[in-house]
# Entry
Amino acid sequence: MVKKKIVIVRNEETFMVNAIKNTLKNNNYEVLDCNYTLGELNAKIHGVNLIILYTDQDFEEHRDAMVYFKDLCVEENIIVLVIGDKEAFDLVHHYIPQEDIAFEVTRPLDMADLVEKVGIVTDDEYEKQRRKCILIVDDDPTFIQMIREWLKDSYRIGMANSGTQAIAWLATNKADLILLDYDMPVLDGPKVMQMIRSESFSSSIPIMFLTGKNDRQSVTEVISLKPADYLLKSISKDKLLSTLDNFFKQRKS
# Structure
C-alpha cells in the first residue's frame, strides 16, 4: 500500500513539530517538513496529499508563501490543514479558498484528534468527494458512456438521457457543471437549458453545450442564452479535459 504523503510547513523544528511528524510517521504516513521559503516548498511539495501549516507568532511574514499555497490549491486541488489560532486562521482565509482548508486545529493540540482529522482528509473517498461533479445530458447512451470514461478519473459524473431526467437528477444531486447536448428528441438543448435555469436548485449551475450542431442558426440561438461554452462532439479527450480544467481554475480564482 502506497503511503500518503504529508508536508508540514513550519518556521522551526520545534519539539511539537517533531512530535507531530513522529506521530504521523508511526501512523504509516510519509512525512516531510520544510520552512516557508518558496525554494524549499518547491523542493518538497511534489506529489503531496496534504499540507499542514504549522503557524506561529511570525506567521504574518509569510504572505508570499500564502500566495504560493493559494495557487497550489487552485491548480492542483491540494488539501490544507492549519494548526494555529484565530488570528492565523483569519490570515489564511485571505489567501486560501475556504473549500481547500479541510480543518483548522487550535492549540494546545490533541494528538489523537489531529491523527483522526488527517485520516479523514487523506482517505481516498474524501479525495474523491472533493472532485467537481459534472452532469452529462445526452440522448445517445454510447456517447455518454464515452465521455464518462474520459472524465471519470478527474471528476464525479452524473448522467441523464433527457431534459426531464436531468431535472430529476438535479433535484437530489449537486452538479458543478452540466455538459448538454443540443439535438435531443422531445426537448432540445436550449429548452432543457431554460428548464434548468428556471428551477431554484439548478439555476446557478454553469452549462456547456457539447454537441454536433455547428450551423450558424443553432450556434446563434444558444449563444444568446449565454452558456459557459459551446463545444463540438468532435473535440478530443485531451482538449475536453484541458477545457474543463481551465474552466474550474478560472472560477476558483
